[in-house]
Amino acid sequence: MPRIPCRVVRRCAAVHPLLPLLLAECRTFDEARREFQWLVDGVPPGRRRLARACLARHRHVPLQYILGSQPFGPVEIRCRRSVLIPRWETEEWASALAGRVGPGRGGVPGGVPGGVPGGVPGGVPGGVPGGVPGGVPLRAVDLCTGTGCVPILLRAEWAWAAAAVEWLAVDCAPAAVALAAANERRTRAGRSVGEIRVVSGDVLQGPADCSAVPPRIHLLTCNPPYIPAERFLADVSVSVRVYEPRLALVGELHFYRNLVEKWLDRTDSFVYELGEFKQAKYVRDCIAADGRLNKMWSVGVKFDSAGKIRCVYGYRNDATLDYKSIYQEFGNLIYTPRL
Ligand SMILES: C[S@@+](CC[C@H](N)C(=O)[O-])C[C@H]1O[C@@H](n2cnc3c(N)ncnc32)[C@H](O)[C@@H]1O
Fold first, then answer.
1. How far is the CA of 176 from the CAs of 64, 81, 252, in angstroms?
2. 207-211 long-range contacts, Cβ below 8 Å, gap at least 24?
3. How far apart are CA 120 and CA 273, in angstroms?
4. Which domain holds residue 94?
5. Span from the CA of 32 to the centroid of ligand 1 (angstroms)
6. Ligand 1: residues within 6 Å at CB?
7. Are 204 and 311 found together in one domain?
8. InterPro entries per the record (predicted)?
């Protein structure tokens, strides 16, 4: 990492004596000044509080733990130590997904606004809300939910959904379950949106371990720990390494194998965040090699705006909803079923 030139330190000090403290994390004058303003705006008034916040930043404490929140799509997600801070990469795919599901999407002109459980007049197979034949609500399950940011964003974006979606969020860390539940309540307050049930469970045990998981899932989302242990020290910044939970970060193929072995039969579609192509390839190869799954599933990958592979997704081609339309342009297909 390049050293910070003295002139940058002096330039910061000329603006405010606390500003140089931010250089340890920010590295440049512009970054430090921008962050300083966020701290001035976000920390309760008082010089000592501001100094404490700058000192914490000097010790690489993540800004979101100091300020207590992170904007995520249209919502503000509360952040606490011991729970992973939501990232822009996740926000990006979750927002893209949100935009693919809803009235007029899923291949149905007009779709079904305001879908409610029990069926909606005009509910059309292939549409999404209320369009599931039989009038069942759309069932969305988020695994490894952390702060609950993914389902909370989807719920905020799906204004049409009201009570038409059944939500479930699962995490095994008590701090994450408590924070996701608190974020869920705060972002629901006073609005007519469905509750996201937040439950404690070990995703690796599969749905059988968690009685709250519905018998059929329409949309399974997950941002699992996916940084290989040997890359953790080399690739991850001090701030993340020291202050964010290792349980949320370190993994390799575990959750992708677990998807194929334990969750695929329970869901009609999935979106899993990942860090490398190898993880998407693993899912694709498992599906392609299985004589039953390879006739049902399409698999695709999505890149983020920085050009890095970011998700593997898939959908059943024999499902009740028109997932082909929903996922069209979400990413690029890398496997289509053998007929
Ligand atoms: C990468 S974080 C994702 C958090 C959140 N979804 C997000 O995108 O910011 C992974 C989460 O998985 C949880 N986790 C790790 N192993 C798990 C397991 N076996 N079962 C359930 N949750 C697990 C961690 O506690 C952590 O909250």
1. 15, 10, 21
2. 207/262, 207/263, 207/266, 208/262, 210/170
3. 32
4. 73-101+136-335
5. 31
6. 84, 86, 90, 144-147, 149-150, 170-173, 176, 202-204, 223-225, 247-248
7. yes
8. N5-glutamine_MTase, SAM-dependent_MTases_sf
